[in-house]
Every structure is written in C-alpha cells, then in structure tokens.
Amino acid sequence: MDSMEINKGVAAVLVAGIAFFLTGTVGMNLVVEHRLEKPAIVTPAAPGAEAAAAPAKPAPLPPIAPLLAKADVATGEASVKKLCSSCHSFNEGGKAIVGPNLYNVVGGPHAHMEGFNYSAGMKAKTGPWTFDELNEWLHQPSAYVPGTRMAFAGIKNDQERADVIDYLHTLSHSPVPLPTP
Ligand code: HEC
Question: What is the full DSSP assignment across 112-170?
Fold first, then answer.
C-alpha cells in the first residue's frame, strides 16, 4: 500500500467524520423541540377514580311518596314492635320510655312530647315532622340530628322505612294525608 492510498483512506475517514458532525448540527437546528400544551394521549380515568377523589357524599334517598303508596301498615307495625318498642310507646297519652311517646308525631312539631328531655340538636329543629324528614331521620338518626340521644343506627331498607312511617302516620285522630306520588 503506498502513501497515496493511506492518504485517501485518512481523507475518507475525515470526510465521513465531518459529514457526520455537520448533519448532526444542522439536524439539531432544524428540529426545534416544542413542549405540548396538552398531553397528546389522554387515558380515560379508571372507573371509580373520580368517586375516590371527591369526598364521599351520601346518595340521596329515593322519594318517599311512591314507597308510601305501596307501604303496608301491618308490616310497619311489626317492624316497630321489633325495632322501636324497647324505647318508645305508641298509644295515645303513653309514657316516655328511653325515648318520647310517638302518638301524633307525624305532622307534629319536632320534639313534640311535652316535658321530654330532648337533645339540643332535636330541640333546635323547627317545623313539623314531614314524611320526608321522618324518612331521613329513620334512615340515619345521627346524620339528621347530630348528637341525637336516639341510639339507633337507622333502617336502611327503603320499603321497611316507608312501612314504619305509614304505621306511625295512623297514630292520630286525624292522620295527615299521605303524599301523592
Ligand atoms: C335505643 C332507644 C331508641 C330506639 C331503639 C328508637 N328510638 Fe326513637 N328516640 C329515642 C330517643 C332518646 C329520642 C329523642 C332523640 C333526641 O332528643 O335527639 C327519640 C326520638 C324519636 C323521634 C322524634 C320524636 C319527637 O318528638 O320529635 C321519632 C319520630 C322516633 N324516635 C322514632 C323511632 C322509631 C320509628 C324507631 C324504630 C324504628 C325508634 N325511634 C327507635 C330512642 C330510641
């Protein structure tokens, strides 16, 4: 191999190197990097992710009127005997037990029994006991009257609650009419 051949080889390597360097530099200047303002791909949030992020809000109760329309007084009375009668009497003029007597409570004022030692929260409630309010109260007493003295978890079954309210509303000389669905 003569020196001419070696020179050609060296030149080839140099040219290749220069070409490599130049294309790199030119390329870098041609392509300008932009940051996207919005992500190009939006992955849908996993189901329940939003619910987990938002503070847990209790689901609203179904309207009481349609449930009352198909409620059964006798079933309600049986539930009341089982769930409530250790603390409440239901007859006219009945005595307070742990809780107040409940004759005439539907449509009557909150804290309706004269002389009963109600919680401050219950005494602070104004207006009559409507069907809707009884529905909320009996679903979860501690949520309806924070600090209530009624130590009862609530009736979670919507129809059973309506049956109980239907029975309560019969405990009067002139029962308040049931709401129309
Ligand atoms: C462990 C005893 C207990 C049980 C069980 C109980 N209650 Fe009560 N109830 C109370 C007490 C005590 C109060 C008074 C609450 C207050 O002052 O915050 C009350 C208040 C009430 C009131 C409001 C009365 C008013 O004058 O405003 C209603 C209505 C009522 N209860 C219905 C029921 C029904 C219906 C049941 C059964 C499903 C039931 N309670 C089960 C103890 C009880």
Answer: -STT----HHHHH--SB--HHHHHHHHH-HHHHSTT-S--------HHHHHHHHHHHHT
pLDDT tens-digit profile of 21-54?
A: 777 777 677 776 677 777 677 766 665 555 555 5
Q: Which domain holds residue 138?
A: 64-169
Ligand 1 pocket mutation pick from 79, 83, 88, 158 by most atoms within 8 angstroms of CB: 88
Asked whether residue 174 is domain-assigned, the answer is: no
Whether 41 maps to a domain, the answer reads: no
The model scores a pTM over 0.90: no
Distance 90 CA to ligand 1 centre (A): 11
Cα 61 to averaged position of ligand 1 atoms, centre (Å): 20
CATH number of the domain within which 162 lies = 1.10.760.10
Which residue's CA is the nearest one to ligand 1's atom 30? 102
